[in-house]
Design brief:
- With 709 residues, the protein is of the alpha/beta class.
- Among the domains are: 164 residues, 3-Layer(aba) Sandwich (Rossmann fold), CATH 3.40.50.300; 67 residues, Helix Hairpins (Orthogonal Bundle), CATH 1.10.287.1770; 191 residues, no CATH class.
- It is 64% helix and 6% strand.
- The protein is built from 32 helices and eight strands.
- Strand 2 and strand 3 form a beta hairpin.
- Helix 7 packs antiparallel against helix 11 and helix 21 crosses helix 29.
- The chain is elongated, with a radius of gyration of 31 Å.
- Bound molecules: guanosine-5'-diphosphate (GDP) and magnesium ion (MG).
- Guanosine-5'-diphosphate (GDP) binds next to helix 1 and helix 4.
- Magnesium ion binds next to helix 1.
Length: 709
């Protein structure tokens, strides 16, 4: 292996690639090594793109790359291609193969393939805690001797063993041990030897010649193509290889690819048998199987899933409402403080910007932080136990019925957080049609930014008993609509075959406090940062829209002059309303009102939806700003009380429905454009969803009104 040296001759930069099966704990190892907090999840397919980080150890700098999870290097899926290309082209100095110690022989299969590629991976024997728990003991020294490398036991999610691992990486970076080679049966060895003599070592780079010869016998399409491009008389050469394959087939009555695969497995399991000191006392997998018999039951699985979801929203609601009320009164106290010490007549514009624009705008969004944290606490816990992978499994059948790929479920899960990373996560879908279908319907999966809207409106219009149910219902409506929309797309614009999908189910495990907390804090921090930046900015802009142009002559004054008797309070209120209507917001809102009226929205709600295009939370901010400006100065009513008096529950529901379906936010549109590469899909997504939202909300409002709700 070549060692790249840095321009700076005091320190060398060593590239370390982390590879391994999905769910073996690569990202956890990555975090333990680099001290960062990347997303880990107990289901396959979380890491799609490779992530990079750095650490220093002794006199060296290590650049760590987290590769997507793979079972083999045959380049069948996007993940395998990403991983194999990286290994072959970048030639990292050290590979750390993260293996699940409780499932060692299957995990070693990948290590064996890497050795054939000429690498000598350091093995991180992860899940050492679980291995110990089930009574499985491995003699690490035997493993090291046979594989000619370093092996380190780790418990990645707790950061155990990371110092030893760093030392092992350091040692391997300094050594130039070549990996052991796997010896196949004589019939195959003979043909490998023959083909090897025909290949030029220089030309075959970056692949070792023996690897190319073996892969040719296995008829690996990429390698065949690679060799054809390098060799002078490809037809003749391919005929030679075909001859070799046929002669093996006649000798051993099976195709070389099957025999070679079997022997690779045999090598791995032989090694494990040799190194095993004590075998597991009981099977962790069988415990998981027993639980799964109930939770992923053919009929009961789906009700269980919806029940767990309900539990999650119940928690978000009930437990979240206490700290939320606290934050709300804090905000109120703050507003009152300013109200008392800053007289209305003193620089009134700045005062209004502070109270109405900033405190009410940003504050109204911030008070939902506890709910956001609880929701993601729950999701993280469900993920870490391994239940979410089951949910994907249960939904797989449903997904196929509606024409979506089973793998689409993971982007959808991520979509509960935010649509943007969810769209990125569709990269695991190999088929373009599957991918576009998923992207198109992803905005219907209710993201974290819609939660404040629900949290503001649900307690206003629905009695306590129904509140968690309403929240659950909103999410459910989103999921069902996503399914229907996907089906519709599959029947029209994106017709095509379904590609099959096998989902790997990780065993159940206890979620760790640390990992759940990291997940929750990451989300909470994103939310606070968004409130402090984009929501703040848009709140100020909205305030400007609500304030200018300013009105100085009021109709109500003329009425008073004409003899109408009104209290001073009534006059003040009428003036503010006139001012608002005169402002830009008022004008735009009034212009659109004839249309949005059909859905039950007045111009105030309408303008709030305009800001929501930038970020959904702005809806809450803008509504709060408008009602804070519009209320008379010495009113003690909260926004909630004002809204309750002003709108019906039907309107409240319609607002939530429209917020759920229509107008995916700006960031989503940008991401859809980038990932599909077409404006066409972006416009269709935006227009289609807005139209759907309009039609459905109008229907609900009109029918609801007819029924007298
Ligand atoms: P990746 O798919 O290979 O990147 O795996 P992750 O790093 O996302 O880990 C998968 C799951 O296993 C997460 O829930 C981790 O918290 C958990 N995990 C990782 N390493 C260990 C370990 O050594 N012991 C235990 N008990 N859990 C682990
Ligand atoms: Mg990962």
């Amino acid at each position: 292996m070549t060692k790249k040296s840095d321009q700076n001759h005091h320190e060398r930069v060593v590239v370390v690639a982390l590879a391994g099966n999905p769910n073996a704990g690569k990202t956890s190892i990555f975090n333990a090594l680099t001290g960062t907090f990347q997303h880990v999840g107990n289901y396959p397919g979380v890491t799609v793109e490779k992530k990079e980080g750095k650490y220093t150890y002794k006199d060296m700098i290590f650049r760590v790359v987290d590769l997507p999870g793979i079972y083999s290097l045959t380049a069948f899926s996007v993940e395998e291609v990403v991983a194999r290309t990286f290994l072959v082209e970048e030639r990292p100095e050290v590979i750390v193969d993260v293996v699940d110690l409780t499932n060692l022989d299957r995990n070693l299969y990948l290590a064996v393939q890497m050795m054939e590629l000429g690498f000598n991976p350091v093995l991180a024997l992860n899940f050492a805690d679980e291995a110990r728990f089930i009574g499985q003991v491995i003699d690490v020294r035997i493993l090291e001797a046979r594989l000619r490398t370093r092996c380190v036991e780790t418990i990645a999610n707790r950061g155990r063993g990371s110092d030893e691992l760093k030392e092992a990486i350091y040692q391997v970076a300094h050594s130039s041990q070549s990996p052991p080679s796997i010896i196949y049966t004589p019939e195959i060895e003979q043909e490998i030897g023959q083909i090897e003599t025909l290949l030029d070592e220089e030309l075959m780079k970056p692949y070792p010649v023996r690897y190319v010869a073996t892969k040719l016998l296995e008829q690996d399409r990429e390698i065949v193509r690679f060799v054809q491009g390098k060799i002078i008389r490809p037809e003749e050469f391919i005929q030679r290889v075909d001859g070799a394959i046929r002669s093996i087939e006649t000798l051993v009555r099976d195709s070389p690819s099957i025999i070679i695969g079997d022997q690779r497995h045999g090598f791995a399991s032989g090694l494990v048998r040799e190194a095993t000191v004590s075998s597991p006392r009981y099977d962790r997998v069988s415990f998981s199987d027993q639980v799964d018999a109930v939770l992923t039951h053919r009929i009961l699985g789906l009700p269980f899933f919806f029940f767990f979801m309900y539990l999650l929203f119940w928690l978000t609601f009930t437990a979240g409402s206490i700290p939320m009320a606290g934050l709300e009164s804090l905000l109120h106290g703050f507003e009152n403080l300013i109200n008392t010490y800053w007289p209305v007549s003193h620089v009134p514009l700045v005062r209004s910007l502070l109270i109405d624009g900033i405190i009410n705008g940003v504050g109204s969004v911030l008070i939902f932080l506890p709910n956001i944290m609880l929701l993601f606490l729950g999701i993280a816990a469900l993920e870490d136990t391994g239940y979410m992978a089951r949910a994907a499994f249960i939904m797989d059948k449903v997904m196929h019925k509606i024409g979506l790929h089973g793998k689409s479920f993971i982007p959808m899960l991520i979509g509960f957080g935010c649509t943007v990373p969810a769209i990125m996560a569709t990269r695991t879908l190999e088929n373009f049609r599957d991918r576009v279908t998923t992207i198109m319907v992803l905005p219907l999966i209710s993201c974290g930014a819609r939660l404040p809207i629900y949290m503001l409106l649900i307690p206003i219009f629905f009695s306590q008993r129904f509140q968690p149910f309403m929240l659950w219902l909103m999410y459910l409506i989103g999921i069902c609509l996503a399914g229907l929309a996907a089906k519709a797309l599959r029947l029209t614009l994106l017709k095509g075959e379904n590609t099959p999908f096998v989902m790997e189910l990780p065993p159940y495990r206890m979620p760790t406090f640390r990992s759940v907390m990291i997940h929750m804090w990451n989300r909470a921090w994103l939310y606070v940062r968004k409130a402090g930046t984009i929501i703040l900015l848009v709140s100020v802009i909205m305030w400007i829209f609500n304030t200018f142009p300013r009105k100085h002559v009021f109709e109500v004054d003329q009425q008073v002059q004409a003899g109408v008797t009104l209290t001073s309070q009534q006059i003040e209120l009428a003036r503010t309303n006139e001012k608002l209507r005169y402002s830009l917001s008022g004008r735009i809102g009034s212009m659109l009102e004839p249309v949005t009226r059909l859905m039950g929205f007045d111009w105030k709600i309408t303008t709030s939806f305009i800001g929501a295009f930038v970020a959904k939370e702005v809806f809450v901010a803008q509504l709060s700003i408008i009602y804070s400006m519009g209320k008379d100065a010495d009113s003690t009513q909260t926004i909630r009380q004002i809204l309750r008096n002003k709108y019906s529950a039907l309107v409240g529901f319609c607002v939530m429905l429209f917020a759920l379906i229509a107008t995916p936010c700006m960031a989503t549109c940008a991401c859809t454009r980038q990932e599909t590469g077409r404006w066409r899909w972006t416009l269709l997504q935006f227009g289609g969803l807005t139209f759907l939202g309009f039609i459905l909300t109008t229907l609900v409002y009109q029918i609801g009104t007819l029924l007298g709700l």
